[in-house]
Design goal:
Strand order of the largest sheet: 7-6-3-4-5-8
Strand content: 25-35%
Largest sheet: 6 strands, mixed
Distance between the termini: 19 Å
Helix content: 25-40%
Number of helices: 4
CATH topology: Nucleotidyltransferase, domain 5
Order of helices and strands: EEEEEHEHHEHE
CATH architecture: 2-Layer Sandwich
Structural class: alpha/beta
CATH class: Alpha Beta
């Protein structure tokens, strides 16, 4: 993990993808206050420029790994919405990454099968595990939409107003 140090504090830094890839950070949230559960994806180019974000809100799906797999699937939807052909999808859920790589049987195998099929439609797709500290935007997005009605939400060009993220995450 790359970090910038400010005084004694360690500030996490977004990890850029290879120069010819888009990066989609994903996360999932289980609502604790009786709201709905949600998954989200935020897409940036290799320079850190915001491209798009999407979220899906569910009722009745509260198993964390299943939601994380659905978040990876949502990243593929966002890639298709933006006509991306090369992307790196980053999640903080190592279990889902391992099950994708090993093609393991698990309670959410049907979602993993759909991911495998859909990633071939997108083009070159790689999945990567990253620390939650490098995934705070996606985490903030899903926490913000947990109170929304079930459905899919998408933002192009600008992030949602409730999400205070810079248009360009890299400071040059």
């Amino acid at each position: 993990m790359k970090v910038n140090c400010i005084g004694n504090a360690r500030v996490p830094r977004w990890v850029a993808p290879p120069s010819n890839f888009m990066k989609i950070n994903v996360d999932a949230a289980v609502a604790r206050s009786g709201g709905s559960d949600a998954v989200g994806a935020i897409c940036r180019d290799s320079n850190g420029l915001f491209i798009a974000a999407s979220a899906r809100v569910f009722d009745g799906i509260s198993e964390p790994a299943t939601l994380e797999a659905l978040a990876c699937n949502e990243a593929l939807s966002l890639a298709l919405d933006n006509n991306l052909s090369r992307c790196l999808i980053a999640t903080d859920c190592l279990e889902v990454i391992r099950n994708l790589e090993e093609k393991s049987l698990c309670p959410y195998s049907a979602i993993l099968n759909e991911i495998q099929l859909r990633k071939n439609i997108v083009g070159e797709v790689h999945f990567k595990h990253e620390s939650r500290k490098c995934n705070e935007e996606a985490h903030s997005l899903v926490k913000g939409v947990c109170s929304f009605a079930p459905g899919r939400y998408i933002w192009f060009i600008r992030p949602p107003e409730f999400l205070h993220v810079p248009m360009n995450i890299l400071f040059k």
